[in-house]
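I'll show an entry:

:::
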Amino acid sequence: MRPVAAMLVPFFLALSLALVASASAAASAAAAAGVPPASAPWVPIADTGNFFYRQVGNFSLLIRALVFREYLDLVEVVSGSVQAAGAGNNYSLLLRAADRNGTVGRYQTVVWGVPGSRDWTWKVISFQRITGN
């Protein structure tokens, strides 16, 4: 009976190590999927008129139109900040956009993506209309 128990100890040790390695891989996969690191600071974007940030803003408006049938045209990217998040970045943008009647409103959006990559799908994390000035 004791020799069997002695043989099971290495088996359970190997199984425990495999579970720990698997949990570590899952945490790495979550980070790569766009979950921002807790310590990553938001960095202000100096040139929000840059074509890239207009593309990010237009992407957010396009997804909004596809999901909610609310069509908005980008007027300008007012301000923004960027945060490292896994394999990519979170982009928090304040947009001015016009509806079909030409009424301009302000909208806050957060988009995650990997610039220049075809392997990662961009995601709209949040989108909301901002009331007031």
The domain at 38-130 is CATH 3.10.450.10 (Nuclear Transport Factor 2; Chain: A,). Helices lie at 2-32, 51-68.
